[in-house]
Amino acid sequence: MRETLSSELTFEAPTWNKVYTMILGLSGKIQKTGFKPDVIVGVARGGWVPARVLSDLLSITNVASVRAESYMAIGETKCEPMVTQPVSISVAGKIVLVVDEVADTGKTLKLIKDHVVEQGASEVKTAAVYSKPWSVAKPDYYEKESSSWIVFPWEIKETVSEILRKPVEKGASIAKQKARLAEDGIPVKLVERFLKEIAEEQNC
């Protein structure tokens, strides 16, 4: 488990098209095994988009949400995740697919799986777009393993805020961090836009 943001931490920023292609591959793996869930449960917030796309690709209209809090900031985690919003619909007697964007420590997916089982689901499997090499509980389905911090298209502003705030506290230049983000695939124009928005929000 990573507890601090280090200078050695690398980032991977897949585009919307890349993410969709990966979820398409994920759906193929699920279909190949013959697993047919009645309900897809997206882990808030990161799992919502993959869950919605999988609901389309797998032709499953029953989509629910559940929330577990673990990440405090980039590269930092609490010791143990906690369910803070129970699964939003009844899953009693249902076959369930729990979906998140990344299985990092694996603890969140395991926690949610156990929670859904406790709610009476008859069978539960887990899926994630990415899995980390050190995950203690691998998803039943995942598309890629990576040790980088994954920056999804739907969380770029949040990531820019965290990445740029921490190094500035350590005396690093914003220009250097902008260059680093650009090298890892985050468009400079977006970084500059979000920097401006973040500065305006802080001045409110």
Structural account:
It is a single chain. Mean pLDDT is 86; it is low at 1-5. The chain is an alpha/beta fold and 204 residues long. A hairpin with a 2-residue loop joins strand 3 and strand 4. Helix 1 packs across helix 2 and helix 4 crosses helix 6. It has helices at 16-33, 48-57, 107-118, 156-169, 174-183, 188-202; strands spanning 11-12, 39-44, 63-73, 76-85, 95-103, 123-131, 141-145, 149-150. A six-stranded mixed sheet has the order 4-3-2-5-6-7, sandwiched between helices. The chain has a two-stranded parallel sheet with strand order 1-8. The chain starts with 10 loop residues before the first strand and ends with a helix.
Straight-line distance between termini: 36 Å
Taking the sheet with the most strands, its summary is:
6 strands, mixed
What is the CATH domain class of the largest domain?
Alpha Beta
CATH architecture classification name of the largest domain: 3-Layer(aba) Sandwich
What is the ordering of alpha helices and beta strands? EHEHEEEHEEEHHH
What does the average pLDDT come to? 86
Brief write-up:
39% of the residues lie in helices and 26% in strands. With 204 residues, it is an alpha/beta fold.
List keywords for this structure.
alpha/beta; two-stranded parallel sheet; 6 helices; disordered N terminus; 2 domains; 204 residues; Rossmann fold; 6-stranded mixed sheet; 39% helix
